[in-house]
Amino acid sequence: xxxxxxxxxxxxxxxxxxxxxxxxxxxxxxxxxxxxxxxxxxxxxxxxxxxxxxxxxxxxxxxxxxxxxxxxxxxxxxxxxxxxxxxxxxxxxxxxxxxxxxxxxxxxxxxxxxxxxxxxxxxxxxxxxxxxxxxxxxxxxxxxxxxxxxxxxxxxxxxxxxxxxxxxxxxxxxxxxxxxxxxxxxxxxxxxxxxxxxxxxxxxxxxxxxxxxxxxxxxxxxxxxxxxxxxxxxxxxxxxxxxxxxxxxxxxxxxxxxxxxxxxxxxxxxxxxxxxxxxxxxxxxxxxxxxxxxxxxxxxxxxxxxxxxxxxxxxxxxxxxxxxxxxxxxxxxxxxxxxxxxxxxxxxxxxxxxxxxxxxxxxxxxxxxxxxxxxxxxxxxxxxxxxxxxxxxxxxxxxxxxxxxxxxxxxxxxxxxxxxxxxxxxxxxxxxxxxxxxxxxxxxxxxxxxxxxxxxxxx
Length: 459
Known about the structure:
By secondary structure, the chain is an alpha+beta fold. The chain has helices at 24-28, 34-44, 75-78, 90-101, 138-148, 170-209, 243-253, 257-276, 318-339, 343-348, 356-365, 435-451, and strands at residues 13-21, 54-56, 66-68, 79-83, 112-118, 124-132, 234-242, 284-291, 304-311, 375-381, 388-389, 392-400, 409-416, 419-427.
C-alpha cells in the first residue's frame, strides 16, 4: 500500500533527523566531517540490512514488488551534503529539511538518502535521513537508528559489508509470485472469516456503548482548511517539550503519555481552526498508526494497524478536552482490538497489483475532501539513553511521517532521552508558516498544565 499510494504529489517517505553537538575544539580540529560520516556509514552498512534492499518489479504486474537483498550501495549517491543558511538556527534547518522532503526517492536504487547538513550555529551538525515508509515503520526505524548510533557498552561491530545481490531471472520471479499467490488464496477464507467476525464484534460493542455525540463518527471527518488537494512541496517545523513535564502531567491527570500528546494536538488544531476557518465546532478525526510488533530486533517492515481517533477540537475547556481525548483514544483502541490488530495488514496484501496504483493516483489527485481522516498523528517512543554518532553526542532526534490524500498536515512525536520532540510536515498550501502548528502545540501543552494547576517546572 505504501508503494502504490505514492504519487507525484504524495511522497511516501519518512524523515529521521539527528542533531549532533560537536564543540568548538572538534570544529577547529575538523573532527566531525562529511568524510567521517561516510566512513562510519560504510563500516556499519552490514548492520543496516534495509538500506541494502532494492525493489524488484514482477513482470506484467502479476504480483506486488519484492525486495532484492544485500545489494551494493553507492554512498556517493545516497550520502549528500547540504548547507544550512545563516544564522544556522532551528528555523533554517527546518527549511532545509522541507526541501529534502519535497523530492521523491529514486525507485531504481535502494530507497533512502542521508543528507549531511553543515553550517549550523553553536557547533552543531545534522544528519537528515530520508527513507521510504515501505522499508520501515516507526518501531523498525527506531531500532535501525540504534544500529547506526554508538551507545554505552560494547563497541559497534564495524567492517566492510559483503554483497550478494544477483538479479533474479524472470522465471524465478514468476515462480516466487505463483507460490505466494497460492498461499494467499489458501489463506483468503480465513481472512474473510476473521474480518466478518471482527465487524460483528464492532457492531455489537457499538450498540452496547450507545450514542456518544461528543466523539467524531466514522466516515464523517468534517471539512477544514487542512483538507484539500495536497501539493508536492513540503514545509517542516519542529519544537521540543520537556519529557519530565509530559510525564508529570500524565501522572497528575491519570492518563497516558499518548493521551497527553493527542490532547495537546487537539488544543493546537482548535487554535488553528479558529484562526483559519473561523470555527471549531466539530471534533476532528486523526489517523493514528498502532504497531502490532514492538520487537527490539525488528529493523524493517510495517507491522501496523490503523486507528481513527476522535479529537475534541470543539471543546474549549482544556480539562474537558483531556477527558474526551482519553475517552476517544480508549474507544479507538478497543475498536482496533475488537476488529483484530493484524487484520488490516493481512487485508492489505490482497490489493490488486494492476488496479491499485491508478486507483491511489486518482484518489491523490481528487479535489474531494477525505471523509476518513483530517490529520495523521504518530507518537513513537524513541531511545531512552543518549547516543553518539562517530563518537559525537546526538543532542536531538526528530521524525516525520508522510502526508496522506487530502490531508495537508502530519504531526509526528518522538521521545528522546529527556525530550518530547514534535515534528510537523505540511504542504505549502495549508499554512502561512508551518511553525504555527508547533507553536500552537507548545501553547496547548502549557494551557493543559495551567488548567491542571501544575507549575512551569517539573516537580
